[in-house]
Amino acid sequence: MSEQELKALRVRIDSLDEKVLELISERARCAQEVARVKMASLAEGEVPVFYRPEREAQVLKRVMERNRGPLGNEEMARLFREIMSSCLALEQPLKVAYLGPEGTFTQAAAMKHFGHAVISKPMAAIDEVFREVAAGAVNFGVVPVENSTEGAVNHTLDSFLEHDMVICGEVELRIHHHLLVGENTKTDSISRIYSHAQSLAQCRKWLDAHYPNVERVAVSSNAEAAKRVKGEWNSAAIAGDMAAGLYGLTRLAEKIEDRPDNSTRFLMIGSQEVPPTGDDKTSIIVSMSNKPGALHELLVPFHDNGIDLTRIETRPSRSGKWTYVFFIDFIGHHRDPLVKGVLEKISQEAVALKVLGSYPKAVL
Ligand SMILES: O=C(O)C(=O)C[C@]1(C(=O)O)C=C[C@@H](O)C=C1
Q1: CB under 6 Å to ligand 1: residues?
Q2: Which residues form the Prephenate dehydratase domain (predicted)?
Q3: What is the pTM of this model?
Q4: What is the CATH classification number for the domain harbouring 314?
């Protein structure tokens, strides 16, 4: 390519950037107007709701449907995700607590869902995320709920039994683990590998094959593992890209998870109910009396009404020995007439039924 051609293309890019800049600014001014309208239409004592997950899902879907390339749908939606995040920050900067410390996959999930224009707050434990939301110190919390290799995150499920929370969104993240070392690590003398217990489990076969005799030490998070390794000469950590970048570690081996499709699902928790979008999921907790056929009774109304269950998990109820609660996710919104009917039917049989929330299915 000649210098001349390159110069001409850059002139075109400059001119396009000016148009993009003007359009983004016009969109941001529109969001400010939206905020004004929301404030003006408040009833006495009503608090404004600036963040609208149902609308955000609609915007991102529309972008993906209309995208003609060459950028892929996910890439384009990510760009719009950030534009919308900045527009919302003009209306109201969201405060979001997540399972920290900085550099965890949960932080990456929070950014994927809300974008980067939020005030984020790392918490030391899942329960603390719940408490922070319950206390009203933040607008939303982000917690992991299940992993495709290792199953349920029990701390999260148990926290739902203790706190009144509304689930207002979900996000799925492909989890890639790397073996990370610091600049002081002597790579042929590694005698300890730190990571979160779930991550150690997700890389079990790889560790058995490559480091069979090395001590595996479970710590509170992958980011914590990365932090520890920085100052030690005989240890390595298993963690992801964000932690590697944050603590300046080197990848000794990449993508060491046993299953290439290893993914984790995260939930956004808050106090705001989300209206239907037409493509939603609902999460409920049900406790049934301890009698034969109770689980069957619980599942029949879903089957009879053709409602698709996406997950069912059992946990001890914590209110009596050998009594259990079921966590169920299914397709639909609790305001859909069909779903309403099913929930009514279940509540006639159940000891207790709690709708944790209906929320748009993950778009990104
Ligand atoms: O449509 C709204 O209610 C807006 O506030 C605008 C907007 C946007 O930028 O598109 C911003 C934040 C909301 O969460 C949803 C959408």
Answers
A1: 31, 34, 50-52, 55-56, 59, 84, 87-88, 91
A2: 95-271
A3: 0.93
A4: 3.30.70.260
